[in-house]
Each structure stands twice: as C-alpha cells, then as structure tokens.
Amino acid sequence: MYEMVDKEYIRKCRFVYGWSIREISRQCRISRQTVRKFLEDSEIPSYRLTKPRPRPVMEKWLPVIEAWLKQDEAPGVPQKQKHTSARIHERLKEEYPDEFDAAESTVRHWVAKLRNRPKEAFIPLTADAGELAEADFGKAVIKINGVSTDVSLFVMRLRNSGVPFVRAFRTEKLEAFLEGHRLAFEWFGGIPADVRYDNPKTAVTKILAGPMREEHELLSSLRAHYLFDSDFCRPGEGHEKGGVEHDVGYVRRHTCVPVPDVPDLETFNTMLLDWCTKQRNKNWSLWEQERAALRALPVHPHRCATTRPVVVNKLCLVNFDNNRYSVPSAYVGKTLLLRAYAEKIEVLDRERVVATHTRCHSRKETILELEHYLPVLAYKPHAATHAAVVRQLPEVYQRIRRRMTNSRPDGYKDFVAILLLHRVFSSQDILTAIEEIGADIVTAEQVRARLLQTGTPSSALTVPDELQHFRLMKQNPARYDSLAKGVVH
C-alpha cells in the first residue's frame, strides 16, 4: 500500500511539478533506477516470482510422470493413445492409492510444464434434445491374445446430452459404417433428427458446391430406413463436429491407455459398452430429455450389408475382397449372391443362405468349411490325405489321419468315415467323443456309438436338398463297404 502511495507521489512530482529524476531521487531517498521504474509503470505493484516455488507434493511424482511421458514417445506407441493429464492422475490414484493425494489440477499444471504445449481454441456448439448426433471413425491399437491389432472405433455422440456410443470394428469400410449406425440407434433406443459427418469416402462419393454432397446409395438407403437427415462439415473442417472429434480421442485415452489385451474383439466391445453406460449415467437428466425427443425405431432393423454376384469355381470357392471363401460343392460353376457385413460373409442361392463365414480382413486368405467338401470326400476319399480343409482341423484329427493312413494302404477310407459323421453330428460333439475315447486308432463306429451313448442329439447339420444326389457308394458299392460301416445316412 505504501509503495503505491510512493509511486503516485513520485509520478506527480515528475509529470505535474516537473521535477527531475535526480531531484526526486534525492528528495525521496530512493535510487534513480527505482524512480524510472515507477515512472514507466503506473500499475499496482505485484509480486514477481524470482525463484521456482517449492513443490513438496509433486516432487516425488514428477519422475514417474516424466517416465510415462517418455514411454509415450517410444517407437510403436499409437500417436492417439498417449497419456493425458487426466489419465496420468487416474493412474497415480489407481497405482499408488495410499501415497498419492494431489489434485488433478496440480497434475495438469505440471504435465503442461513438462510438455510445454500451446493450447488450442474451440467454439462451443449445442443442439436441442434429439436434434443432432455426430458420427466419426478413429483408429486405435489393442492386443488380441497378446498380438497388436489395429481396430477402427465408430463413435456416435448425441450433441445435447453428450452421450456417446462406441463400437470397434476391424475395418472402416461401408459395411462397418452402416452397422455402426444401426447398433448406435438401437443402443440409444431412438433416432436423432440429423447426423453430422465430415466427408468419409465410404459415405460421400463426390463433394459438390457448399453443403451439397453425392452420397453413397447405401447411405441414402440407411437414411430412408431410419428417416434421419445427413449433414456434412466443410472439407478439412472436421472441428465443426468437434464433440465427436473429441470423443474419439477421449475413448482412446480412457479405454485404450495402457493398451488393453483381450481374448477377442467382442470382449473389447463389451468393455466399450460398459464405458458408454457409465458416461450415460453421468449425464442422466440430460439423457432422459434427449431419449424422450428421439424418433422411434422402425419395426425391422436395416440390413447393413453390401451385395454382389459371385461365381463358384471348381475348388468350391468364391472370391471377395482379395480372399476366398468355401461354399457347398453342389454349387460349383453356379452364380450366387454374396452379402458382406462388417464381420461376416453370407453366400445365398436366391434368398436361401448356403454358406456363412466370419469375414477375413487380411488378404489372400482361404477360409474353408469341412461340411462344404464332405460330399466330394465321400466319393474321392483319397483326397482327405492332403485336403487343405482337413489339414486345418484340430490336431487330434491329424493324429488319427496319420495313424489310419499309415496302418494300411486304404486307411484313408476309415478316416473319411469319421469325417462323414459331421453330416449328422456337430463338430464339437464329434471332437469331444474322439477325445473321450482316447484310443490310438478310433473308428467311425466307435465315435458314433459314443455319441449315441452320451445322448448327443443328432441334428446337428441339415444337408441341403442339392446335395442329396451325392451318395457314399456312388461308383462301386462293394468297394466302399468298409467305409460306409457305421456311418449314419
């Protein structure tokens, strides 16, 4: 207070009374340097920190934080799955519950100092309840059984309540884009009036002037089914839907740091839904208002798939997306319809599904089902010795195959007789029966007897009508008596 009065007096002496700096210094008994400082600055004196403040609370934890930040810079760490201040605070509380007690704001302050990053400015956005959702894809890395795997996170966020829905896919292709919408609408229990996007290539075929876009016909079909409007950001201006842009990163930071290790993708998606439920519960009052304003779901869900004709080659395979999938041998040479979903493949003869496979997202793979080749193995049993579809069976089958084929020249026939049981019994039941018998040489009759003894229902597989013309004794019934023995027809 006294210093402010002195500053006022000194400035008056100079600028009102015209005193010189030397005279002011002599009369007020202060240095000329101080006089000049007061003359240059009329503000209230403030305390200026000349030494760093002591940091007793954080002193112990700064090395830990620095180590985590350093780990983020290591090769192979996903760029968008690095520690944030909030995640560092969470980890310190989780891993040192009895020692760490600093506030999140304190951690944020020191992390900012360690990173020295400039802050980015944003414009607040809002919408009425049920009016707007924002959708986007983002990349993440998880581990499935210890193997690093790239996944794509589909995020849809309701703008008014901020409630997010997240689903992990192995691809960002159109099928995943469509299925993400269906699953989000079903989880929300309704449909927003408008969904905003940036300009994903899967949904936008051409960017026209202003807000106009040429949409993919399947996105238009999805909109026609669920009756919502689409809205697109300006090219390169994804921040116009900043809520979901933030949520993609928020999901990664709070569910993928550290990188999760899960047995399969479905387990990870269950974790994501649990996280979404917690976020919804945090905004429950807003969520109830938003839920009441959403449009009702249609009676039937939309079929989120792409279709194309395929020709079955002589190896009982159809080609799709640089991979090959097997179909029943009766369809060799025929043109069928392939329906591709985000995580499965269906092959149809007219409206009837004749083959279903888990979709392969790598390239140049061949996906085979034993049941598709059984009619051919019935009259070409020797092929079982080197058939690719047989070699992919569990090791117990390989052990039986080797022992049977080595026991006598036509031992492969006995092995095929076991394989043909798959036309009646389920694969898992047959495998269990073989393992329970546990003999060095297992016959089809033994396996069948075991299955009937344990009361295993024989339903297992229905053979299509088109396959009925195949018979075990097609060429020479006498030749295959031993093979047919014990096989259920």
Overall pLDDT level: 82
The Cα radius of gyration reads: 35 Å
CATH class of the largest domain: Alpha Beta
Classify the fold: give the CATH topology of the largest domain: Nucleotidyltransferase, domain 5
Shape: elongated
* Classification by helices and strands: alpha/beta
What is the name of the CATH architecture of the largest domain?
Answer: 2-Layer Sandwich
Structurally, the number of domains stands at 5
Strand content: 15-25%
Secondary structure: helix percent: 25-40%
Major sheet attributes = 6 strands, mixed
> Which blocks of ≥5 consecutive residues have pLDDT under 50?
236-242, 458-489
How would you portray this structure in words?
This protein is of the alpha/beta class and 489 residues long. The protein folds into five domains: 2-40, no CATH class; 62-115, no CATH class; 132-293, Nucleotidyltransferase, domain 5 (2-Layer Sandwich), CATH 3.30.420.10; 306-367, Beta Barrel (OB fold (Dihydrolipoamide Acetyltransferase, E2P)); 372-484, no CATH class. It is built from 18 helices and 15 strands. The chain has helices spanning 2-15, 21-28, 32-40, 62-72, 85-95, 104-115, 174-188, 217-226, 242-255, 265-282, 284-293, 374-379, 388-391, 395-407, 411-419, 427-437, 444-453, 481-484; strands spanning 132-144, 147-158, 164-169, 194-197, 204-207, 213-215, 229-232, 261-262, 306-311, 317-320, 323-326, 335-340, 344-349, 352-358, 366-367. A hairpin with a 5-residue loop joins strand 5 (204-207) and strand 6. Helix 5 packs across helix 6 and helix 14 (395-407) packs antiparallel against helix 15 (411-419). The longest helix is centred in the middle third of the chain and has 18 residues, at 265-282.
